[in-house]
Amino acid sequence: MPQHTLSRPGSLALTALAASLMWAAASSAWAQKPPAPPAAAASGAAPAAKPPADPTAPKPFADVIKDAKQQDGYLPVWRKDDKVWLEIPEAVMGQDLMFTANVSQSVGERGLYASQMGPDWVAQFRRVGNTLQLVARNTAYRAGDDAASKASVQQAFSDSLLASAPVASAPHPERKSVLVDASFLLSDILGYSTRIEYAFRLPYGLDRGNSNIEKARADAELTTLNVRMHFATPKMPAPPLTPSPVPMPPPPKTAPDARSFFVGVVYSFAPLPKVAMAPRLADPRLGHFTESFTDFSGDMKPNQRVHYITRWRLEKKDPQAALSEPVKPITYWLDRNIPVRYRAAVEAGVLEWNKAFEKIGFKNAVVAKQQADDADFDTLDATHASIRWFVGADVGFAIGPSKADPRSGEILDADIGMSDVFGRGARRLVVEDLTASSEQRLATLMSNHRAGQTCNYAHEAAGELQMALDLLEARGEVAPDSPEAEAIVQQVIKDTIMHEVGHTLGLKHNFKASTTITREQLRSKSFTEARGISGSVMDYNAYNLSLRGEAPSTLNNTTLGPYDYWAIEYAYKPLDAKNEAAELARIAARSTEPALAFADDADADGPAGVDPTVNRFDLGDDPLAWYQRRLNLSRELWQRVQARTPKAGDDPLRTRRVLSSGFRQLMVMPDLVSKYVGGLYIVRELPGPTQSIYKPVEPARQREALKFITEAFFKVDSFSFRPEFLAQAGPDYVEWDRAGPISIPDTVLQLQTRTLDRLMASGTARRVLDQTSYLAESQRKNALGLAEVYGTLQSAVWAELKGSGEVDRMRRNLQREHLKRVQGLLTRTDPSMPADAVSLVRWHAERLQADLRGALGKPGLSIDTRAHLQESLGRLTESLRATMQRS
């Protein structure tokens, strides 16, 4: 910055007076003596006077870094005391580079965890006057080679400014590089403040004055800086005098002072590969992550979107050898924070993928290395693919993101984060209180799946592990602290690492793979030990628990499936450029083989989630049979634990945990079973003259699913527990913030309302009405119609009206929830609900009105039942008379 001299008050007047006296003296001397000729007149013209120095010009390079220590590298780093400068070489200025930001330290709750891979950008350093800008390049829209195309795309789509700072020095005399104060990184480049606001809804701001650069590292291929950012808010808001209708998240609970916490970020600058890898186009019949962009290079393409699959650069040392080691293997560094007892399982999960690479000619394509305790690098930098352990107050997931070169799809870095939930799994399992909050957490988890925000395989697998260990313990087969329990935990860790490594190799989820193994094969221990329990490790595979009386089989997945080999072949098989398109088409054409069935997240959820065979955490070729099996397993667990005599020294939360284990298995069933109603089987295949992409689910299967879900969750005797058992389900009295008594009716009602919501949703109605469009005229008579769906549902909910008329409390709760939904459809316009569906709801409501009147005439009804039926009749009658409200 320019230097300014500040004068004392009055100095300006003194200076003016002195100048006036000096001018008078000089004028007197001039008058008394003629001036001598200028000295320069005898020797030629005088040299020009130097212009005054520019106070805004940067200081000389040497002056800025005087006494500073240098780390040479891609961007050399200079450090003196708490000052850090980056040296930006002339060759780097204006050139594309990879800039990444990863989170090394965080709050430890509500989604803000350590060891998480953050965003990345293709960026450039640009100098504008004396300002240095770090600009993120827009790679989502690309031009052709001609000047006009480049100009139009550049004008249409903007780059983004990530950060800027004054140039700190004049160019180096020889290298022509300039310095920039690295404190420009002490800003919220990765947008973490938004994530904090989302988590806590409090005005936390970045406190730059208490943020600092902790360390830096540089070599020829990388420059990394670890920064510690302080976020703070002046005060915690007082709670409202009356509860807010909008639920607000609590302030941070993990920080000693909720007003302040630190976040660690690892920033890396690395050059892009000098020669971009040859890209490989994606095929919709397989699931690979992609680098996608809109191509404006021509106007003759029917689809301007281009998708390059993401994959590591893998080349044979000996291209002629049938089996060769790679020039550079895919290396995963096991971070030093992984507990020693689990490192072997983590390594086994990594190396399992070598089986797929050997099939296409690579030996030791994947390597696992252990980071030494005294290593000087951070595994979150941009040149070390890593696996890191992390902990949190409410955490239980693993994630496997990667970063790729957008020019080609070449994966340049990957950092798998693995929470410690499995390490705790066999000894201190996750406790889920049976309250609305647990349902909200589950709903949040499901919405994250729908948004495709993260891979929650480990989180949900932890619940599966909890159920498995509780049931095996109840059967007397596995003790919590036994070697058998430890072996299960080790295998779960390997399975989870296989899954996440698959993501970092470029593979998406495959939620149809579990259906490629038959129920008979699942019961065969010899088959499952050799082949696994699913067609892919990229599915969310459930635990293969045997039913009561069945011989035990392999519990969880142990090896790669056929789909995994196929997907790796498509992405990594060395191919001659001339024949690549034809060979890839040949590989992808195997998609119709039953063992290679594929469907991703979008097929499992949302508007595209119409195929009942595409799910998470099911097993076998008949998902409906699996759900029936899962219900039986939960009931067996509850029966066995209720028969157990409590002992002194038992975990006080054990009863609650066991109840949670069973109910957790059931919470997703309404979403999954209801997909059969109006469902369509989907075949991933390219268009063809005889190819059918959609096929309606068989009417008999639709009716079977509808009957199963209504009987399983609506009948009174589906969830009966001994009073003595519930009376023993106390809280942990050591904790101040403890849960109250368990309400089984409330928990069951969560299942029931979820079932009602799915069966009465506009999406279900539209599916059922539309499915006849896919049927021949002769097949439509037997199709499941929407009138039958609503009639079956209403009969199951209000079954007492046809019988004695007496209704117990749990059934009254269910009937009120059904009536709420009927009222809503009768009195408020829902633009997404088909008009035929609303008409059918009204038709069935009038039938229900008549049934209620008839039931009220029956003698011997209790006061509770009579009051309930009278209120229901009144509300329904008002709704049928009401004027429709437009929304």
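the 2nd protein, sequnce then structure:
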Amino acid sequence: MPLNRVLPFLLFLISFSLFSQNIPQNRKIYHTKKITSAPKIDGLLNEDIWDEAESAENFVMLEPGDGDPIPASHDTRVKILFDNTAIYIAATLLEDEPEKVMRQLTQRDNLNQSEFFQLDLNTYDDGENQTRFIVTSAGTQADARLTGNNEDYGYNVVWESAVSQDEQGWYIEMKIPYSALRFPEKPEQEWGIQFSRRITHLNSTYVWNYINKSLGEASQYTGLLKGIKNIDPPVRLSLYPYTSVAVDQFDSNSDFNLNAGLDLKYGINDSFTLDMTLVPDFGQTAYDEVELNLGPFEQIFGENRAFFTEGTELFNKGNLFYSRRVGSTPVGFNDAQTDLLENEEIVENPDKADLLNALKISGRTERGLGIGFFNAITDKAEAVYRDSITGETRKKTTEAVANYNILVLDQRFNKNSSITLINTNVTRNGNFRDGNVSGLLFDVYTRSNTFNFSGEAKMSNVNLPGQMKTGFASNFSFERTKGKFRYRFGHDFANETYDINDLGINFTNNYNNFSWGTSYQIFEPQGNYNFYKIGIYGQHLRRYRPDITVNTGFGGDFFAVTRKRFAFGGALGVNSEFRDFFEPRAKNTYVTYKPFSDMNFFVSSDYRKQFAYDVRVNYEEYFKSSQNYFRINVEPRFRFSDKFNMIYEFQYAYQNDRSSYVTQVERDIIFGERDQKSIENSINGNYNFNTKQGLNLSFRNFWSTASFADNGYTQLGNKGELNEFDYEVNEENNPNTNFNIWNLDLSYRWQFAPGSEAVLLYRNSIFNEDKLSSLGFDESLDNLFARPARHNLSLRIVYFIDYNNIKNLFQG
């Protein structure tokens, strides 16, 4: 949809939203008081100042019911006080059977099956952006940033909490410093606030301010916190210096590394914060779950680097930011092999560009305007070649110094809607590829939250040496968001030159797709079910140029949870033939796959029990073809005690007779009938001495083979058909693959002070890939263990320094 058509339509939607009826609700109001002497955070609630505070009470049920008052046996009362440094929270949570309270020891941000108290603060009272603070019955802390229903637990700030218990129930004290919050500069604050209590052993959740689950989002149903005024917040400056030491041993070679660096958080004002990492070190990030990838697209991984996961909700608008691009594989990495001269060998070819530094500035004004700026710089990467005869070396740049930038403007209005402008830019020094993408996004609800209109219009510009390529993409959806019966319609478009892969991730372009769906769900328990949802859906996929059908499909899905917390669900779909324009790896060429049906089904047992399990099955059947696909995933978990928990996961997948790309010989695109199977075993175990110290074990072994039938090679025709072809396989062009990877991490984590921690990590990894696809699992594992293993031992210490503590120390 061109921009000149998007803007008038967007203005109409905004006008329609502004003049519609708002959500009817009676907001509870809490009036807090200022104190001069702060309470001790010990969970005992025995200071006299708590007697002076107003009490937030009369909690109502959120799940599984709808608005039922909390029973007197579990009465919950909350009090709030404040000073110039922080706000203070005291919660009394009664329990008539205290021995049933689940208190599982976990580390930060891991709730598991513990019962917990939750505080949500919306310091701009805009109905969407909230900060969440959680304390479990065992004393574990969790914090997150919320945007709508999306929780970002990568967000970590420093705050205090403590719990205590007696025969009447359990109690919480919390201190949330202003340095952990962002709020507008004005004489008196008015914040949205919500209290929640999860009673796990009763499978119920209660909230202070009623939430209508059938209308809008939970973030729009906060109460109102009043009374915070005449405060003089301290300077928000936090330093996180770190030091790390690592010993790496691989194939009789050993390396020793000593690093030091600094992360910094600075409150530019009460609303905006600067985050910066200088000399970053990501040596202890979790390993990527690498698989055998034979498809046309790159494998993507989750982000494990804290700087790129914390407080990034603004930068993720429009899905234009794939943070793994920063410091990723150099653009010329794969070309290094082809540039070898006679008698040369590659001595060094870095597989990633080093991150030199990165910063982000983000916040929101009093009028709801969110502003975000991100910048990162990566160093030059060079391949080193050596002449085996003369010994001379030469270098070739595979990635130039690169500058990555994001600028975001996000205006919230009506407490349920937003308009966003975003621009991403990647500039590389020298004669390398540059990229720039701009997007206009809108997410508009009617004031009654009955309907939602959302969409995006994005334009990409890629500057290649001697060539500029401009692309466009858009999407639009309309959805009913009220009541038990709901429906939606959507349209997605991209032209053939749309490309955001310098800082984003997109696999496909040149499409013109339509989708629809409808569903029915309940919001209160009925019969044996606490919740269920049934839906049907459909899609029609088209190529933009040339304008031809790619696929048409429809199906149905369901999800249900019983009163005993047993969950199950699944989906069944039927699809027409599918024209795949990407498997052939050639422009304007496609292969046609037969019509097929697909189904999946899962069950999940009650996690409150010591033993629980998840089972998921996927199956695809192709009509008039021998091709099919089957996968099963089994995940049992056992809680040995409140300290020790272990999860084992087994996955088996098998795909047979799939027509798959092999190679291209001159103008002929060669396909083959491929069988592929994989087995994955993984274990994740935790033993926690307390909420500050614990051991964690992560293990994963992934094995996969791909075997092509000897007489199954074909040539791709002009209309997507496959014709018989005599393709001779030899040792060099053999497409069969045996892939095996092993990773093991064992770590000890100790939070020795608020915001400060030490992590001792042992890492073991082995990798093997060859052509022996006929080997069984045991034989392939023997070959894997014959390969050299990489052993890595590292210690990383991070210390939290609050500027105000240093200032007070010197003043004292």
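The domain at 32-229 is CATH 2.60.40.1190 (Immunoglobulin-like). The longest strand covers residues 693-716.
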